[in-house]
Amino acid sequence: MRKSIVGIFFIFSVLTSSIAQNALNIIQNMQTQDKAVGSATDAQRLPDAQLAMSVSYYPVTAGDIYTLGFAVGTNTVSYSIPVDSTYKLRIANLGVINCAGLTYLQLKSQVESLVLRNYPMGGVQFVLTAPSTFLVSVTGEVIKTAEQDAWALTRLSTIIKQNFTDYSSQRSVTIKSASGRTRNYDLYKAERDGDLSQDPFLRPGDKIIVNRLERQVKISGAVERPGTYELLEKENLKELVEKYGGGLAPLADTSRIELYRSITGKAGSGEKSYLNQSNIDENTELVCYDNIYIASYKELTPVVFVEGAINLKSDMTTDSETPEGSSRYAAQFNEGEDYAYFVRRNKNIFIPEADLEKAYISRGGEMIKLNLNDILYNASYTANVEMKPNDTLIIPFRQYFVSVAGAVANPGRFPYIPDRDYEYYVGLAGGFTSSNAHDSVILHDINGKKYSKKEFITPETTITARSNSFFYNWNRYAPTVTTVLSIVVSALSIYVTSQTL
């Protein structure tokens, strides 16, 4: 008895090892083929036997390959069983199983029962070694009609979303099965409500038809889930706000609802109308491409304006939106807030060229000086200036100059411009005079240190154009020298004549 049990365990271990090896070889071959074809998208899972066997609902699919193994006495039997489109599986010489509509686990149970009825000690094993890959067609309102690879755990949304156009409906997608059955699906319900029955697994021979959307509207502003939504028949403003938009935000101002209707049936670019809470209650009708905006009480929060030497691309802690490139910023604040708190909260907006000491507030024609250096860097600063609606905080630019002296037409001080060389500033000074040869200049920075004229000029540099032209100096003093020499020559001539007489 003990020997029989040992023998059975030995046969079972050999059988299991053989099935596992066969399964591994088939899976490796399938993976190699998948990499070669490369037909699956990044969002789509590749066929995976382990994944298929890990779920209870994997459906037996035409093209699947299963491996069956069991013991017959002291011999092991192991072979692959492919599933064809008839869904009839012949299990050795033991019988035929109709596996149409069965899951893997249901088929496995029937196969094991059939084998064990004939070989009670057979130690039967039945595994899925290669899930089927099949084609489905996608037509309708898509970028282009196509056939795409799928497998039994590929959902509808995985296949079609990449093919959508701006006019594709996700609320009405039709699948016509190989048997001729037609059914519509609503992918929005699957995504929003988690109703996965509306995002089914695909089957061989499925024909997917994406229908054209009928009504798409947009809602923005003070709702919990702003966005663009496709409405069903009889759904209008109330459903858009409460169902699709997730309801009103806490600070929603329903007395200020804007409706922009781009399609009016009239000439022109559209029209705007104003709604309120009663329109929501009455479920005002909407048409395709309507745009609803619900204002917020937060928009009525008072603002101050900041302008001048500021960087609007920095991270500001207020919520207002400012067009890129603007030098004026509308910043919201709370009643009773003071400038010390506001400036410290937004210190990153000030650029290096800002003259913080000379900042001031413009309030109704009054100018209130505000030294921001004290606010930012003086721990003992105590003077608080309360913020008032429509104040303008002016941040002046710190102005630098460059001095040009020497052999130039108009020596003087000129405003500093970054990334300019000495020729730019000499040009501002009217250019070199004739006493300068070869553009000879000496550059001293703000600390008096010389630097090369090949470098860009720094703020408060002094540019000295040297008077180094030999011919300029010669022409300047030549008349005097000539006159003196003439007098000397004349005197010598008179002296020589008198000596001769």
Report on this structure.
- The chain has eleven helices and 24 strands.
- With 501 residues, the chain is of the alpha+beta class.
- Residues 1-17, 30-42 and 317-326 have low confidence and may be disordered.
- Helices cover 27% and strands 27% of the residues.
- The chain starts with a helix and ends with a helix.
- It has helices at 2-37, 49-54, 104-118, 156-160, 187-193, 237-244, 277-281, 339-345, 372-377, 422-428, 470-500; strands spanning 65-72, 75-82, 88-91, 95-98, 125-130, 133-140, 146-151, 168-176, 182-185, 207-212, 216-221, 227-230, 252-261, 271-275, 291-296, 303-308, 328-332, 360-363, 366-369, 392-395, 401-406, 412-415, 441-444, 462-465.
- The protein has a five-stranded mixed sheet.
- It is elongated and about 160 Å long.
A few lines on this structure:
This protein has 501 residues and is of the alpha+beta class. The chain has helices at 2-37, 49-54, 104-118, 156-160, 187-193, 237-244, 277-281, 339-345, 372-377, 422-428, 470-500; strands spanning 65-72, 75-82, 88-91, 95-98, 125-130, 133-140, 146-151, 168-176, 182-185, 207-212, 216-221, 227-230, 252-261, 271-275, 291-296, 303-308, 328-332, 360-363, 366-369, 392-395, 401-406, 412-415, 441-444, 462-465.
Q: What distance lies between the first and last C-alpha atoms, to the nearest angstrom?
A: 169 Å
Radius of gyration, taken over Cα atoms and rounded to an integer in Å: 44 Å
Low-confidence stretches: 1-17, 30-42, 317-326
Shape: elongated
| Alpha-beta content class | alpha+beta
Largest sheet: 5 strands, mixed
Reading side by side through the largest sheet, how are the strands ordered?
A: 7-6-10-8-9
Q: Round the mean pLDDT to the nearest integer and report it.
A: 85
Question: What's the total helix number?
Answer: 11
**Beta content:** 25-35%
Would you count the extended β strands for me? Answer: 24
